Amino acid sequence: MGCSLNKKLIGDKTTNVNFVLAFGSCNRVDLPNLLWDDVLNAKPDVWVWGGDNIYADTDDMVALRSMYNVQKEQPEYKKLTATTDILGTWDDHDYGLNDGGVEFEAKDASQQEFLNFMNVPDESPLRKQQGVYNSRKYDVDGHSINIIILDTRYFRTKLTPDTETKKRLKPNEYGEGTMLGEVQWNWLKKELNSSKSDFNIIVSSVQYLSHEHGFEAWGNFPHEVDKLASVISDSKAAGVIVLSGDRHISEFSKTKIDGMGYPVIDFTSSGLTHAYKGFAGEPNKYRVGEVVFTESFGILEFNFEAKKVDFKIVGGNGIVLGKLEQVYE
């Protein structure tokens, strides 16, 4: 699926910003939604939900649908949907089961409610597919961005509780379990191998790089972390960036992968309505800069000519709480 955009300059025309992606996660309908006006002011070309778009934790589809509808009618969000493309994935709380994966029995019904929320047409192939993974390519003046949405819930192996330390979860033995399932892995490989886009944005509801905290992360399946690194490297795809949510904190993580001419950045943006205000620190060997533990959303500003992306963590009143710049040669 793809679409074309005329070049749109955002804000000061001297910035040479060709495309703006805004994203966020962890959004409750029973708390004030205070950041949507700031998202609107950023004038994004696309908004990407990173998961936990509502907090339902239910297998009652009537209750789930009602909560989605409340979010749809939130005035400022409604303005955004009227002017901006909306993409996204789910995480555990809108999926329906806390920390849930393949074992959630209501996942097929929940998927249909998620697709309703995302205004996916009844005739779309996504209605018949298992899992909410999908992609969309944006063409802009001879350049393009491919946004690859992963589903880290539908196929994901049940997690292993940590009964030996104070952490919630512990990693599986190397080789045991899956994040994406065979069909989605094959689809992802095809997406990256065939991509000619200037940038390839992988949306994962949970963090790809940071994993020492003991909560949900790709690191609970260490072989899958390595597999994704290999898939990215082998594809030779340009400008691969990971976006994640889930944690109620925002941060940048960065690593070098063998065979790649640029580092992979995992930009975590969470949460929109509530944050880990009691955050007292946690290890993350990949972290760049400081952790933001107040409400925020993320912005990526793309400059095709300079092959550059400006990453920004944005809070209330449009205040930039953290930023990172990366050139992709």
TrEMBL record:
The organism's taxonomic lineage, starting at the top: Bacteria, Pseudomonadati, Bacteroidota, Flavobacteriia, Flavobacteriales
Segments forming domain PhoD-like phosphatase metallophosphatase: 36-257
Organism: Maribacter ulvicola
PROSITE patterns found in the cross-reference section: PROKAR_LIPOPROTEIN (PS51257)
Protein name: Alkaline phosphatase D
